[in-house]
Amino acid sequence: MRPKPPGGINSLDALYTQAAEAARAGSHGFSLATRFFPVDLRRAAHAVYWFCYYTRRLASQAETRDQGRADLDRWASMVAAGLRGELARHPVLDVFLDTVDHRAIPHDLPIEMIEGVRMDLDQMRYASFSQLRSHCQRVTGTVALMMTHVVGFRGPALEYMADLGLAIELTAVLRDVGEQLAHGRVYLPLEEMESFGYSEQDLGKHVRNDGFRNMMRFQAGRAHGYYQKAEPGLQLLDQRGRFAMRTAFDIYRKTLRHIEASDFDVFHRRPAVPAVERAWITARSMAGPITRSLWRAMSA
User: Fold this and answer.
1) In whole angstroms, what is the distance from residue 294 CA to residue 166 CA?
2) Do 161 and 234 belong to one domain?
3) Looking at the whole model, is its pTM more than 0.85?
4) Structurally, how many domains does the chain consist of?
5) Is 40 in the same domain as 71?
6) What confidence tens digit (pLDDT) does each residue in 177-212 have?
7) What is the C-alpha to C-alpha distance for residues 3 and 21, in angstroms, rounded to an integer?
8) Residues 203 and 67 in one domain
9) Are residues 153 and 257 located together in one domain of the fold?
C-alpha cells in the first residue's frame, strides 16, 4: 500500500482542492467541462491536470535551459520514486499518485510526458515528421491516454485517443508557429518545408507565399486525418466522462479550421476559437450529462 500524506492542510482532500483550484486558474474550459463529472472522475481529472501543468511549467518558467533541465531531472527522480511506492512529499505528486493508483494509469505515461517536456529544452528543430510525431506522442499523447484512464474505456479506445492527442498537438504546432519562432523554436518538419520550396530563412522573415500556404495545407490535412482516425474512439469511452473528451476534440478541430480560414496567418496573431463559440461547443457536449444530473436529482 502506498504511504499516504499526513492530515491537516496537507491531507489528500485538501490537496485535491488545490488541484481543482489549479485547473480553474489554468483553464476555464477544462474546469467547466469537468464540473459535471462524478466526484471521483473530477478529482482524478484535476490531479492529472495539475501534474501536467506543473511539469510543463518547470521547463517554460525556468530562467535558463540548464535550470529547466536540472528542475526536470529532480522532478523525474521524485516521480519515479513515487511510482515505486515511496512517499512523495510533494502536493502535486501526492494527489497524482493517488489518482494513478485508483485509475490504474500505467507508470510509463507520466515518465514519457516528462521526457516529452524535456525535448522542448533539448531539441529546437525537427528534421522530419517522425521526430515531431515522437514529441507529440510524448507530450500530448500521454496526457490523452492518462485522461482516457481517468474517464474509463472499453475495447481499443487507447489507440484512438493516442491519435486524438497527436491531432491536438499538431493543431497547437500550427497555431503557435509565430509564438514558438519568437522563442527560437521551429516545430514544422524541416524536410517537409524544403519539399515545398520554403526555407527556414523564409520562416524567420514571416514570408507567407504559395510555398508556405501549400506546406501549411499539407500539415493541416495531416492533422485532420488524425481527428478522423480518433473520432470513433469517443464512443468507446465511459459516458460519465466522455463529453469532456468530446469537448476537447471539437474545440481543437474547430481551432484547426480557424487556422485554415485565416489563410494561415500565424505570425502576427494566434488563430483561436472565439469564447462564445467555445462556450457553445462546451454546452453542447455537456447537454447530456447535465440532463442526466438533473434527472437523478429529481428522481432522488
Assistant:
1) 35
2) yes
3) yes
4) 2
5) yes
6) 999 999 899 999 999 999 999 999 999 999 999 999
7) 24
8) no
9) yes
Sequence-distant (6+) residues with CB within 8 A of 157 are 148, 233, 236, 237
- One domain, residues 141 and 75: no
Give residue 197's region: left, alpha or beta (phi > 0; psi -120 to 50). Answer: left
Q: Are 120 and 59 contacting, i.e. CB atoms less than 8 angstroms apart? A: yes
Q: How far is CA 61 from the centre of its chain?
A: 18
Give the pLDDT of residue 291.
Answer: 43
Decide: 137 and 226 in contact? Cβ < 8 Å: no
Q: What dihedral do alpha carbons 274, 279, 282, 285 form, nearest 10°?
A: -110
DSSP string for 48-108: HHHHHHHHHHHHHT-SSHHHHHHHHHHHHHHHHHHHTT----SHHHHHHHHHHHHHT--TH
Whole domain around residue 193: which residue ranges? 123-292
174 contacts 223 by C-beta, under 8 angstroms: yes
Residues 238 and 138 in one domain: yes
Phi/psi of residue 2, nearest 5 degrees: -65, 135
For the residues 50-68, what does the mean pLDDT come to? 94
Report in angstroms the alpha-carbon separations of 292 from 36, 37, 82, 243, 281.
10, 11, 37, 12, 18
Predicted pLDDT of residue 287: 58
Beta bridge partners of 144: none
- Kindly indicate the confidence band of residue 269, based on its pLDDT and cuts at 50, 70 and 90: confident
